[in-house]
Amino acid sequence: MTISILGCGWYGLPLAKALVNDKHRVKGSTTSADRLAVLKEAGIEPFLLNLTAEQATFPDQFFDTDMLIIAIPPKSRSAEGAEYLPKLEKVVERIRWHQIQKVILISSTGVYADRNLVVNEDTPPEPDTTPGKILLEAEKLFRQQSNFRTTIIRFAGLVGPNRHPGRFFAGKQDIANGLAPVNLIHLDDCIGITQNIINHEVYGHTFNAVTPHHPSRADFYTRAAEEAGLPLPGFILKLDNWKIVESKDVSPILGYQYQVDNWYTALADKF
Hints:
Blueprint: E1 2-6, H1 12-21, E2 25-30, H2 36-41, E3 45-48, E4 67-70, H3 84-97, E5 102-108, E6 117-119, H4 130-143, E7 149-155, E8 157-159, E9 184-186, H5 187-200, E10 206-209, H6 217-227, E11 243-245, H7 250-254, H8 263-269
Parallel strand pairs: 1-2, 1-4, 2-3, 4-5, 5-7, 6-11, 7-10, 8-9
Helix pairs in contact: 1-5, 3-4, 6-8
């Protein structure tokens, strides 16, 4: 199968490498000419693709594919946030034009607000942040398409290579909401879940991708810093706004078992 990955970053590049190892033909996009060689060396067909209005480039060969994985964040903290949906509308046009039938859209559990609830795939999202609102609109854009089928993966907080959780709060003090549960996922499970969707041809679904272990922020990040040999953080042991995101559909629909199911074990084995 030919698979194109729009956005070969922290998740997209290792995913592309894993799919190459699975014997797929993989095309990968980047906005930087300097990274084209990196993709090529990994056995990925490299494409320079830019979605900004001033520098839009849409190489037809990239969209000549059996399926498309969209792994570009909205970057809502910068001026690019307002451009995210128009960018995706351009991508939808190319999907229709090239008659791509299978799409995976990477979203985030940030579409759920911290409303002191346990939420799962059946819970209607009510985002209260700009990134969450943008991502929910992106999800709606792809769900309303009738020319192709999209599976949406909502990743929890991302940890893994170059994202050691011990660094997140190392040495900081008086950190609020220390008793709130964490909602995280390791890169290995991000890749594993995506591979299962591809292998089992599961399209038209929405999955929460989040490790089913939710220790408190204070416990987890203190242990993570200690494991990494970093200055310990100090948390205010209070429970403010929180949520627990459950991954209800991943196991029964995909038959997938999380590689990381306990964060305390993972701190020693995965970082």
